[in-house]
Amino acid sequence: xxxxxxxxxxxxGAFGExxxxxxxxxNKFYAMKMFTLPSKYYRNEIEMLEHMKExxxxxxxxxxxxxxxxxxxxxxIVFDYIAGYDLVEYIKLDEFKNMNDEQLNExxxxxxxQILSTLSLMNEYDxxxxxxxxxxIIYNPVTGIFTLIDYGLSCxxxxxxxxxxxxxxxxxxxxxxxxxxxxxxxxxxxxxxxxYALGVAIFYITNGYTPFAPRPRxxxxxxxxxxxxxxxxxxxxxxxxxxxxxxxxxYTAEKIKDMVSEREY
Length: 265
Hints:
Elements: E1 4-12, E2 16-23, E3 28-35, H1 43-52, E4 65-70, E5 75-80, E6 85-86, H2 87-90, H3 94-97, H4 101-124, E7 127-128, E8 137-140, E9 145-148, E10 155-156, H5 173-178, H6 183-207, H7 237-246, H8 253-263
Antiparallel strand pairs: 1-2, 2-3, 3-5, 4-5, 6-8, 7-10, 8-9
């Protein structure tokens, strides 16, 4: 801890606090998570961040690990500080609310392209995110860059268990994961679920509501997804076409990237 100077508190959750800190060794800013629970609760996030070191610097839409260590009272994870707002916060700002239709469509297309690229790279290195949603995407209005954060539920190729946020999970999600008998099948299923979740996020950003009725945390996704909400007429038809394909839950990020490239969105 002697190597860091605390600049300000960024947030607090049920399990710990997050601070903006400066590293006295290189004068760079980082985000520091300090957890009070036993480290076993965060072992997966540390493992994923360590795994990402191999390729994290290749993608400016990821938050990379700087270091982690233990103190007498806390587990501490230090990673890239990402300036900006998560999308849940950003869409409440006048800057977003004052966008015209053309600006909003352009914003959504950039979100699609940037996070698709990141998911594709993660897949290439045998990793899936498993909790893609607006709250886990940071947007920097100055640079125009979207960053995918929070890898606590991420996994490498040998994925197991259920994860995610109900409103961002596809129909029959639990059945889908349960019936994926091999690790490779489960990994492929999660690749497609990440794409589906990104599609829901884009639908939400452009319309102001999710494609399906909200579900409380901890609930099982509905078996009947037929009563889907309609797109607003102001949304770009090409974007609608692509997101509707993503919501079929049949394609990986790499495949959707190819489709986007072919259509020149």
